[in-house]
Amino acid sequence: MRKLIATVFNYSLDGLLADEGTEFWKFCFDLPENSEPDDRAHLDFLQSAYAHVMGRTAYESIAAGMATSTDHPFAGILNAGRKIVFSRTLKSADWANTTIAAGDTTEEIDKLRLGGDGHIVVWGGVSLWRSLMRLDLIDELQLSMFPYVAGEGTRLFDGVPKSYQLDLVSSTASSNGIVYLLYRRHR
């Protein structure tokens, strides 16, 4: 059975996500390009995914930047990869290899989990992440924690059951202070 892995970039020390247009958002994107501790490992992780899952807002944002890009390291992987958009309002998806999932979230995820190789990467957004956590569907959670106290913003874990326990699998620090954390859902 395939694992569902949520990857959360732009996460602050005080547990907030970088909202577009905020100082924290600007801080995240002003960092040097070599922010990943091991770019090859991260690209291999994305390349080996069976599917890339997104909510509507994340899909529209990522597609706008990646669908025609030739220079971003993720562009080739995402453009060729299978993409699933969870949305009840999106009527069409023009980005190649994209399917809209408008049915029951648990049933749609269970279908994706069946079968062979690869894992399922959940890119976001926050509503989808929270929904998947409430339904207890996420197997692993990758957090990129930035050395920044945002003070205000969107909390990732709002509305998630208080008994949502995670086990630390690994942690890696980059030279610019970002800490990459991998947690596994404790079951």
From TrEMBL:
GO terms for biological process: riboflavin biosynthetic process. Residues 9-180 form the Bacterial bifunctional deaminase-reductase C-terminal domain. InterPro entries: DHFR-like_dom_sf, RibDG_C, Riboflavin_Biosynth_HTPR. Gene3D superfamilies: Dihydrofolate Reductase, subunit A (3.40.430.10). SUPFAM superfamilies: Dihydrofolate reductase-like. Pfam families: RibD_C. It comes from the Bacteria. GO terms for molecular function: 5-amino-6-(5-phosphoribosylamino)uracil reductase activity. This is Dihydrofolate reductase family protein. The lineage of its organism: Bacteria, Bacillati, Actinomycetota, Actinomycetes, Streptosporangiales.
